[in-house]
Amino acid sequence: MRPLTTALTELTGVRHPVVQTGMGWVAGPRLVSATAEAGALGILASATMSAGQLRAAVREVASRTDRPFGVNLRADAGDAAERVRIIVEEGVRVASFALAPSRELIARLKDAGVVVLPTVGARRHAEKVAAWGADAVIVQGTEGGGHTGEVATTVLLPQVVDAVDIPVVAAGGFHDGRGLVAALAFGAAGVAMGTRFLLTSDSTVPEAVKARYLAASVGDVTVTRAVDGLPHRMLRTDLVAALERSGRPAALLRAVRHAAAFRKQAGTGWARTVRDGLAMKRGAGLTWSQVLLAANTPMMLRAALVEGRTDAGVMASGQVAGVIEDLPSCAELVGRIMAEATATLDGLGRLERDGAG
Q1: What's the angle, vertex CA 317, arms to CA 12 and CA 337, rounded to 5?
Q2: Cβ(268)–Cβ(50) under 8 Å?
């Protein structure tokens, strides 16, 4: 397997230009270390962990692999500075963010030699974090799972590549080597994938839930605002349909219950919960009802992705779930992607040579 050296591999020290995204309840130590051992960049999801759990998870990954990996953070979390301190102290190579980090957080991480890799869904956001000193940026088009925008990856990606002078990683709709080559042709330095890594044998998602993903067609993946008031791409289920019919009062009541449950799960007090809500309101421009509804997301994802209760939980998913048919190990998946990418590039090279002749 011929390695592909890009700005992403040189920046992060990984062998292959492939990123496993920081999916809450999914991207834990087992998946991240398996991804790192496969030569890709595994990113640990910390938003669903307490600070103490984060440090323990980082140390577990480090005990399983000596290869680079990253941690995903919420920039609007009340204890973001503490989590940054943990990343620095534990020698984590990469810090990724679901929301744009502040200029101060970026500077602190860069001063400590940590690579800063925010995820964005719009060109203007990429321009902002690049101006603040981010080392690279992940650009997610509407095909991606979880919270998403409205612009397709094939439109958004070249916009961002042309707008910033830092490496750009493409996300949304990628699952194989052909997609990696397409992203490179658009000017990206690699691809980031969530759903494809969720659907591996190294993922801790219950097998019955993985089977629901594998059975889904492209048409079974929808975007809804019923969970937390924001556009959220997930598998279409009876529960999602019921949530969409339930109306705002029922949704707000459900959110209050979930806020209490998540506070207990994460070991945070109400004061911290309120501070995080205020930060979210300011950072994302949400109304108070949207902030309250956001409490739905962690616990409803946990119900399905950890407990296997698809009747009581939701399954975030990229559209690409509709074309995934198997559960390889991370090593098998990354090896397959790189072999396909090499074969595709060789085929394009033959076209060029034949055309020249």
Answers
A1: 45
A2: yes
The DSSP call for residue 217 is -
Task: List CB contacts of 183: < 8 A, sequence separation 6 or more.
Answer: 157, 170, 174, 190, 191
pLDDT tens, position by position, 149-163 = 999 999 999 999 999
Q: Which residues pair with 94 in a beta bridge?
A: 70, 115
- Residue 252, token pair as written in the block: 């707000």
CATH number among 3.20.20.70, 1.10.760.10, 3.30.70.930, 3.40.50.300, domain 7-206+324-356? 3.20.20.70
Distance CA 145, CA 261 (A): 24
Least confident of 1-15, 22-36, 237-251: 237-251
Return the domain boundaries, the chain. Answer: 7-206+324-356, 214-319
Beta strand pairing call for 69-73 and 94-97: parallel
Strands 232-235 and 221-224: antiparallel
Could you tell me the pTM of the whole model? 0.89
How far apart CA 215 and CA 316 sit, in angstroms, is 15
Nearest to 202 by CA among 63, 28, 23: 28
